[in-house]
Amino acid sequence: MPLPRKARVKRPIQRNTPFRPPSGTAKSRREPDDQFEADHADAGKPPRRTTPSQPGGVVGSPRTDEVARVTRRPRTTGTRASAEIAESIKLQKALADAGYGSRRELEKWIADGRVSVNAQPAHVGQRIGATDKVRVNGKLAHLRFAAERRQRVLLYHKPEGEIVSRDDPQGRPSVFDKLPKMRGGRWIAVGRLDFNSCGLLLFTNDGALAERLMHPRSEIEREYAVRVVGELTIENKRQLTEGVELEDGLAHFGRLIDGGGEGTNRWYRLTISEGRNREVRRMFEAVGVTVSRLMRVRYGPVMMSPRLKRGMVLELEPAEVAALVKQTPAAKSSLTMAKLPEETEE
């Protein structure tokens, strides 16, 4: 009796497809050949349309849809309006930053109708943008916003016999005639020195920085070398450091140091943290001493360099300007800054 044949076992046909385990079982790791085939399965087919904002993503694919759901930001109303407000600036501030004058002076110009925006009369507090055309006294104002303007600072060794003003009825020489020309703005004097005083003067193209450097609340220290006729007594020195009464209030020096001298001429080095009109001279006069020469040698952290000769101009490097801004006290609110007094002579 012949032996029964072994029952043939029907083996499944091996297919070149990625292995997919039955449901309910753990998925196995793809073999390298299978992965290669899967990655190149679409070779020779026309490329499928992709989303421009998501390079390589296939429209309608689960992964792309998932990414879109994660990265798409919900629309909010007023976004464009907020951006426009953020890019705008008050008219008087933009003009002050460009060196046209103090904010208080410019507010008066606007109220007097000397300023127009897009051929229409301007009003105080009006906000402008980069595309607006501003004219001052009929002339187009070239304004640059903070992001477009590079802060510049000049050091000038003022000699006696020059006035710190652009307009002088007497026609006296002006310090502004010695400064380099600037396109799209004007130089702003940081404080003043009177006609008979000499020494360090700072100029900048940034109105906000000028205000920070001049504002009384900043209490930025100025240092002077002063020659007087006669000699201060111990009582005179005590009065000048503790305070003398002037017509516009009490004033005092931070430091007062004897600088030597011969005969009737004596030199002193002193510091003061404000800049009222002719304040140093008036303080010496209050104790009966006459100032024969006054020279500013330092303004805040800026010293007058020995290589800066009379009538010479020196521009700070960008790194030096950044250091000056960093050491300058932060600006006050616009309401406080609007009360900044006019630039005074010391």
Notable features of this structure?
alpha+beta; 346 residues; 24% helix; 17 strands; four-stranded antiparallel beta sheet; single chain; Pseudouridine synthase; Structural Genomics Hypothetical 15.5 Kd Protein In mrcA-pckA Intergenic Region, Chain A; nine-stranded mixed beta sheet
Model description:
The chain is an alpha+beta fold and 346 residues long. Among the domains are: 85-140, RNA-binding S4 domain (Structural Genomics Hypothetical 15.5 Kd Protein In mrcA-pckA Intergenic Region, Chain A, Roll); 153-330, Pseudouridine synthase (2-Layer Sandwich). The protein is built from 10 helices and 17 strands. The strands form 4 sheets. Strands 7, 8, 9, 10, 13, 14, 15, 16 and 17 form a 9-stranded mixed β-sheet that branches. The chain has a 4-stranded antiparallel β-sheet with strand order 3-2-5-6. Helix 4 packs across helix 5 (103-111). The longest helix is centred in the first third of the chain and has 10 residues, at 62-71. The model is unreliable at 13-33, 49-74, 76-86 and 332-343 (pLDDT under 50).
How is the secondary structure organized here?
Layout: H1 32-39, H2 62-71, H3 79-87, E1 89-90, H4 91-97, H5 103-111, E2 115-117, E3 120-121, E4 127-128, E5 134-136, E6 139-140, E7 153-158, E8 188-190, E9 198-204, H6 207-214, E10 222-229, H7 234-242, E11 244-246, E12 249-251, E13 255-260, E14 265-272, H8 279-286, E15 290-299, E16 302-303, E17 313-315, H9 318-327, H10 334-337
Parallel strand pairs: 9-15
Antiparallel strand pairs: 1-4, 2-3, 2-5, 5-6, 7-9, 7-17, 8-9, 10-14, 10-15, 11-12, 13-14, 15-16
Helix pairs in contact: 4-5
